[in-house]
Amino acid sequence: MTKKLTTPLLFICLLTFTFCTSKQYAVSSQSYRITGTVTGVEDGTWIYLRNADRFNNFPLADSVQVKKERFEFRGRLVDKVLFTILGFKGPVYATDGKTVRDIRLTDATMLWLENSEITIQAEKGNMPHARIEGSLTQQDFQLQISTPTKAFIRSNPNTSYYGVFALNSYKESWGKEVTSELYQLLSEEKKNTIYGRQIADYLGNGQN
Predict the structure, then answer these.
(1) Domain span at 158
(2) Among residues 35, 59, 164, 199, which is most buried (max CB within 10 A)?
(3) Is residue 6 part of a domain?
(4) Cα 32 to the center of its chain, rounded Å
(5) Of residues 70, 63, 33, the one with CA closest to residue 46
(6) Which tens digit of pLDDT belongs to each residue from 121-135?
(7) Which residues fall within 8 angstroms of residue 202, CB to CB, at 6 or more apart?
(8) Which residues of 48-81 are buried (b: 16+ CB within 10 A; e: fewer)?
(9) DSSP 8-state code for residue 67
(10) What phi, psi does 166 have (nearest 5°)?
């Protein structure tokens, strides 16, 4: 009797484990993990991740302690991408160079966060030049620095989410004619982002 029940029971356990594992993988594929190395940082130093996106008020304010020059953030974005700032807090001095006026992220880098695996390599005091991999939008952001914005959007409208973000940023200064022309180059996926919907609202023609 016991031997007859063993095989079906084992099969059910394996099936349950497989289902749970696949479910966990599906969830993890919709989340982000940032693993970083920052040389020259003492153990216990706090590093901060903040929302810096003026178009998206997603409540991101996270912090972790650096251990052996390494750190890790985990989370999940509701939208596809979020412009963030990652770095260390430091003093901001008054004009006399002595009085501390404020404390904020003074050694930091701009990070385009996506639900993906992202790696960062940097050194304390030189965070703006951190090496960041794993975010396609970050790659386009770095490429756009050396390329005129309109030309960049025309050539790279859908390689990442940076094209639709840039178009949303410049829509008022470029006007509706140019904005509409570039908007038509976007894929439906890019149009259906917080940036794409704001462009459609600006154009006022019901595009989505």
Answers:
(1) 143-203
(2) 164
(3) yes
(4) 8
(5) 63
(6) 999 998 988 999 999
(7) 171, 172, 176, 179
(8) bbbbbbeebeeebeeebebeebebebeeebeebb
(9) B
(10) -60, -40
Taking each helix axis as running N to C, give the angle between helix 162-183 and helix 136-144, from 0 to 180 degrees, rounded to the nearest 10: 70
* pLDDT, averaged across the chain: 85
| Same domain as 147, residue 113 | no
- Is the domain of 21 the same as that of 110? no
| Kind and range of the H or E run holding 186 | none
Does any domain span residue 97? yes
End-to-end CA distance of the chain: 63
User: Which residue from 41, 191, 62, 178 is spatially nearest to 121, judged by alpha carbons?
Assistant: 41
What would the pLDDT profile of 117-173 be if each residue is shown by its tens digit? 999 999 999 898 899 999 999 999 988 877 889 999 999 999 999 999 999 999 998
Is 62 in a helix, a strand, or coil?
Answer: strand
Q: Are residues 24 and 99 in the same domain?
A: no
Dihedral angle, C-alpha 142, 138, 126, 104, nearest 10 °:
120
pLDDT average, residue stretch 181-189: 96
